[in-house]
Amino acid sequence: MVDEALLDFGPADEEELEALRLLASSLARLFSYPSVEEARVFTDGESVQFLMGLAARIQAPDALLEQRASQALAWAAKPADERGQTMRRELTRLCYRPEAPVPLEGRRWVRRDPAEPEARLGESASVAQSYRAAGLKLRVGVVEGSDALPTELDFLAAVLGQELAFGREGNGAQALVWKRRRTVFAERHLGPLARAVGQGIERLSTWPPLLLWTALLQIAVHRCGY
Questions:
Q1: Rg of the chain over all Cα atoms, to the nearest angstrom
Q2: Exposure of 220 by Cβ count < 10 A (0-12 exposed, 13-18 middle, 19+ buried)?
Q3: Where are the beta strands (DSSP E) in the chain?
Q4: Using a CB cutoff of 8 Å and minimum separation of 24, what contacts does 56-59 make?
Q5: Which residues pair with 105 in a beta bridge?
Q6: In angstroms, rounded to a whole number, what is the distance separating the alpha carbons of residues 33 and 58?
Q7: For 22-71, what is each residue's pLDDT tens digit?
Q8: Mean pLDDT, residues 186-191
Q9: How far apart are CA 181 and CA 200, in angstroms?
Q10: What distance in Å separates the CA atoms of residue 78 and residue 97, rounded to the nearest whole number?
């Protein structure tokens, strides 16, 4: 049977799915290694306000998130060059160097029962299989591996876009197919990866923007079914 909630798809559902889609897409770029100019833009006050606006649209803000946003906004007052250099340095230190303590690839974190088909296939190949099954292509310019956090977030944004499109059309059956697809993907792949990356960053970083993005990452995967 079709989920009755999807048959009653209305403005509030559309608002939340669109905000989730934009949040997933934004986080995909924030956890990618940025150019100098991107790093300046991603760490300015407008970026913080944009992200918190998305959080408000999915009714996510809480005391901790508000505190982190306030700290990130205070940090955004620093000179653009300092902000950009710090972002690139912090991501390099934690995620984008040999033997990085918080690698972004799912194969480094996700552990399964050896009897599971996904375990025999391997995390990277299993994630790629999810992409092929959905028939979706990632955005132009993606260079990370199939099981890298930015790539998985891009895929989540694409799946949310399909769910949103079918919901707007009133096609509850197809919207449910895509809802289940993003829920399974969050449960099996993105959720465990996001949790591990978040725990690593929380343990090793005190940089306000990154802590804000990490909190938003956990909210996004939770809202998507993890």
A1: 18
A2: buried
A3: none
A4: 57/15, 57/16, 57/18, 57/19, 58/16, 58/19, 58/20, 58/23, 58/219, 58/223, 59/16
A5: 148
A6: 27
A7: 999 999 999 999 999 999 999 999 999 999 999 999 987 688 899 999 99
A8: 94
A9: 27
A10: 26
Q: Is the pLDDT of residue 1 over 50?
A: no
User: Which of 207, 196, 35 minimizes the C-alpha distance to 107?
Assistant: 196
Listed in sequence order, the residues at least 6 apart from 159 whose beta carbon sits closer than 8 Å to its beta carbon are 134, 136, 178, 181, 182, 185
Judge contact between 48 and 73, C-beta under 8 A.
Answer: yes
The whole-model pTM stands at 0.91
The Cα–Cα gap between 158 and 57 comes to 19
- Band (124; pLDDT cuts 50, 70, 90): confident
Please answer whether residues 43 and 75 qualify as being in contact, where contact means their C-beta atoms are separated by less than 8 angstroms.
Answer: yes
Place of tokens 């996510």: 60
The answer to whether 42 touches 87, Cβ cutoff 8 Å, is yes
Per-residue pLDDT tens over the stretch 141-154: 555 688 999 999 99
Residue 9 reports pLDDT greater than 80: no
With 60 as the cut, is the pLDDT of residue 79 above it?
A: yes
